[in-house]
């Protein structure tokens, strides 16, 4: 375990109240424990955000580097509408069979 370093922080009255309540209700043993838990949660959130951003960047890069021919917008819209229509027909057929 790393040696502890003492810091002084300023928080809003609402934050101070919440910290004290967590200690008073027994959720944490001290103010320091509450702050450390909050910092660990913040660190996890930052790591998850970095992972999401790396994933998005990788997908964008893969998309930019994709050598397949582009589909014109009108064709893409036509494909999506056709797929939706097909799904609706399939759903209607399934519903009809269930009623039979």
UniProtKB/TrEMBL annotation:
Q: Which keywords does UniProt give here? A: Toxin-antitoxin system
**Name assigned to this protein:** Putative addiction module antidote protein,CopG/Arc/MetJ family
Q: Organism's domain of life?
A: Bacteria
**Which PANTHER family is this protein grouped with?**
ANTITOXIN PARD
Which Pfam families does the UniProt entry name for this protein?
Answer: ParD_antitoxin
* KW Signal (keyword) present: no
Q: Which family does it belong to?
A: Belongs to the ParD antitoxin family.
What's a GO biological-process term for it?
Answer: regulation of DNA-templated transcription
Task: Extract the InterPro entries matched here.
Answer: ParD (IPR022789), ParD_sf (IPR038296), Ribbon_hlx_hlx (IPR010985)
Q: Which CDD domains match?
A: RHH_NikR_HicB-like
């Amino acid at each position: 375990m790393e040696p502890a370093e003492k810091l002084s922080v300023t928080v809003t009255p609402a934050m101070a109240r919440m910290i004290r309540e967590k200690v008073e209700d027994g959720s944490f043993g001290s103010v320091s424990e509450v702050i450390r838990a909050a910092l660990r949660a913040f660190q996890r959130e930052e790591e998850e955000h970095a992972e999401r951003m790396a994933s998005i960047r990788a997908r964008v890069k893969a998309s930019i580097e994709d050598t397949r021919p582009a589909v014109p917008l009108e064709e893409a819209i036509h494909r999506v509408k056709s797929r939706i229509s097909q799904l609706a027909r399939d759903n209607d057929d399934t519903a009809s069979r269930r009623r039979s």
